[in-house]
Amino acid sequence: MTSSTHKHQPHQLPNMYGATAAPPPTPSAQPNIPLSTSDAADALSILLHRLPSPTLTLPTRRSPPATCAPTLSLNNSTTAPTLLHDLLSASSQLGFFQLTDHSLPSQLARSAESDSLALFDLPKDKKESSFPKNWPFGYEANDDDDDEEQHGESFRLDSTCSTESTELPPALDSLREFTLAMEKLGVRIVELLCSAVGFENPLKEDPTRFCSLMWITEGVPGNKPVLSGGFYPYIVGLQYQIRCQKYSLLADSGWVSVSPEVDSVMVTLGDIAHVWSNGKLKKVRGRPVAHLGDTNNTRCISMTLLVTLPTDSTISPLLPKLVGSNEDEIEKDEEQSDGSSGEREERLFNSFSFEDYAWRVYHERILFKDPLDRYRI
Length: 377
What we know:
Layout: H1 37-50, E1 71-73, H2 80-93, E2 96-100, H3 106-120, H4 124-130, E3 138-141, E4 153-157, H5 173-197, E5 211-219, E6 236-240, E7 246-251, E8 254-258, E9 265-269, H6 271-276, E10 289-291, E11 300-308, E12 314-315, H7 327-334, E13 352-353, H8 354-364
Parallel strand pairs: 1-2
Antiparallel strand pairs: 2-9, 3-4, 4-5, 5-11, 6-9, 6-11, 7-8, 7-10, 12-13
Helix pairs in contact: 2-5, 3-5
Organism: Castanea mollissima
Pfam families: DIOX_N
Domain Non-haem dioxygenase N-terminal: 72-155
């Protein structure tokens, strides 16, 4: 009978650890000590802290940070170098500012608002038949009741506020005069921007090189900003501040909130100005959207004048021209005394069709992805 204390001789493994070294412990030889809940949490926390942290950018549209818009004056006491310096500072850091001493009569702005309110009071069939349908001009309404973000109604008019009907209740004389005055001011701002950045003004002495779009929307009372339609590319956008009102802007830094002074003109720089300046000027994506208080039922019209380009235009950076009439002379001017070639400004954007770009940004309603990214070099 075999004894219960009999031990089998184990198989001997080669000694790979030296004469006196013990073999590494096996799992069965480890003490079975369960981790407490707090120990497990600490271990998980250490592991997560060692992992590379992802960068998440979340939209902050509901509560955009408040920003004070820089104030620029066009009065005669402001010297040209000072004005250009202040303009470049505001445009290169923020992409928007408020303009005072602009010579636009406040009464004209209020009369234009009255004309615009009368347009929204028209029957819908009259609205649709009285305005041209040559995109981007015309009338548009959001008929989708399931759309979470109401876009309201909008009128997009040319600089003469032309219509297809002569029987509209308002003659639109004030709105037309206001639009032309805003256009004149916008063209001057473009001229000042070109001088401040240092490139030739492509609109100079050629009125066919640009066009204007007066975009009129009626706000709906409530705290939530109301968008109307999509975006449309522009050089500069102008909004007359008729009353104390807050706006949300989608700038390069994200959503910001501004409250311009009453009777000032809020100026925003658009994507065309950004490309023209080769990225030196910041931009505002789309038009500012108004916050309307819900304390009363006062109707409010937003009238935005966009100085933009004809649809057959091509957009590309306008780099500062060097002295010389041809490439050979330019290269010669760049040659330095030590024999090295001077550095020319590097182009940051490829040229692209304005019409294709305008159609895409208007219909895709791009908010958080910069539509200019695809054209960056």
